[in-house]
Amino acid sequence: MADVLYRRKRRHATDSMLDAALRYAELGWPVARGAAPGEDRACNCDRMGCPDPAAHPVTMAWGVEASTDPATLRRWWTATPDANVILPTGRVFDVFDVPREAGVMALARMGRSGIPAGPVAAVDSSRYLFFVATRSPVDEDEWWSCHLDCVPEDVEEMPGLRWHCRDSFVLGAPSLMPSGNRVTWIRTPLDAGEPVPLPDPIAVLGILADASAEFSG
């Protein structure tokens, strides 16, 4: 009986992951497969001491492979049912990634000022992800370098704030972390069955930058 319940729970978790991938595809969001927590270690990838356990794609070709094709997604998650969901950025949306405390502060300020937050996700109870409209390559010189995506600690004005844009990615809900926590939506990308508009990144950035600076101080 216990084995039957275990299989049912495992199947439900798998269906939820696949269903999420299919819903993202319906939004026009490309999806790729991600690593997952291992049975006896933090990540099921081949790297010993993985530096980013269960939070990276399963293949270096993820950027090319990312797809919105339902048949492709079903094939992937049938073959690797525990795979986390990877959402490439810089295509449909960019993502601002901030410490949880700064994210909570920013959401409160957006609510008071009437600035729409758009979709927001929580990662392992430590980071908040703010999904915003992507910037075109033409605009990026007036924006900032993807260097911020690698070493946000070096940007004194915005400590702890990461920008995921072209050639980057984030984990999508309900991806599972080694801690046992899942990526969850604080504000979902759907409202009454309709896609939530992605907000202007400049307006969101201003509030997140201030919140990040105040939280670090």
From TrEMBL:
Q: Which domain of life is it from?
A: Bacteria
Q: What is this protein called?
A: Bifunctional DNA primase/polymerase
Which residue ranges does the record assign to the DNA primase/polymerase bifunctional N-terminal domain? 21-204
Entry-linked Pfam families? Prim-Pol (PF09250)
